[in-house]
Structures are given as structure tokens and as C-alpha cells.
Predict the structure.
Amino acid sequence: MIVTENVVKHYDNGLVKAVNGVSLHVPPGEFCSVMGPSGCGKSTLLHMIGALDLPTSGEIRIDGRPLRDHRPLSTYRRRHVGFVFQLHNLVPSLTLAENVELPLFPDRSVGRRERRERAMALLEEMELSHRASFFPTQISGGERQRAAVARALINDPRLLLADEPTGSVDSRTAGFIMEAILRRCRERRMTVLLVTHDEQIARHAGRTVRIRDGLLVGDSSRPGAGGA
């Protein structure tokens, strides 16, 4: 599903070399973790695959098509990609149910009732249905992050990009979040690319790639783990 070919990302006229030529192939349904020290380029790579940033050079292909051909990129993100970050980024003025519904609002084919039913089903899966009418400031940090995962899944994405999704929660909540992601990966053949510093979290994936100084320096599989 994902192919990057010699992808480079430099900032400040080349003074900051975030990604220095990464070639990576992630087939459909694979759960792949990306590890490396802070500042090595792993989050930058994730952002480029999610069309949140553009490469300086090289090519990214999704389903065989160059990412630049998936226009408009906002539609590509909305229809095909779910994002989870270390900070939940929930809208404080909206309830949990409303936050989870947000990615569906631009889709006119999904009516109000269906939006709410899908949001409630995901909140139930995340053990948050009893918090549906609460605002983000009224619940715990772990609950907010679980709601963020629900929001990322509501458009039934074929690709989930997760950047340190368990970095700000306790170990029990981290395990819950990872099991939910792994279950969706297996049931829907959703492709997952997950950035983490935590070896325990990375073990949920069937494959781990390692990046250092903007370069791919390791690629290993874990039989029996991960998705397809």
C-alpha cells in the first residue's frame, strides 16, 4: 500500500536534514512500527506519508499512485487516513461524541443519525460510551487519548498513522489502545504505521523498521505479531 522511494526532507534551505533518502514498502494490512532516537526523522516520514508535509525529493506512492496525484490531499486524508498523535488534539468546546464525529462532517453522504451511531459504536469499543456527552476537560488524559483513537477510526481508514499514541498515558491505557489498534488492523486489514520510542509498544507490530539520522538502518519482522 505504501511505497517510499529515496524520500528526502530538508528544512531551512538544506541546513536541517530530517529525512535523507528513505525507501520503504509497507504492504496492505501490515502493522509496522518505526523506531529511532528523537530527531531522527521518523515523525517527518509519517507526516509526509499522511500528506501533512511534502518531500523535498523522492516519491511516495499509495496504492501504486504517486501521492501527488491523490488530489486534493485533504480528500485523501479524510477518506483514507486516520491520524493519532501523542497529544489528543480534541476540540475542548465539543463533547466526546461530537469530537469523534468530526472527520465525517465533510462527507455529505453520511447523515446526522449515522454519524452519531458510528461515533457511539466506537466510544463503546473504547469503553467511553458513558462519557459521550462529557467535554474533554471533564475526563482523564487516558480517556481523552482513547477518544482520539475513536476519532481516527471513524472514517474506517485503510491507513492509520500513529505518532507516539501511547506516549502520554499509563501502561494499562497504552495496552488497551494498542489492542484496539491491533484488532482493527486484523479485522479490517487496515495498514498501520506507528512511531514509538517504546520497545514494548513496538512488539505489537509484526515488523519494526529503525531510522537514525534520517536513514533506514534496520528492518525486522516478528512472526505471529501484527496484522495480516
User: Anything to note?
Assistant: The chain has a mean pLDDT of 93.
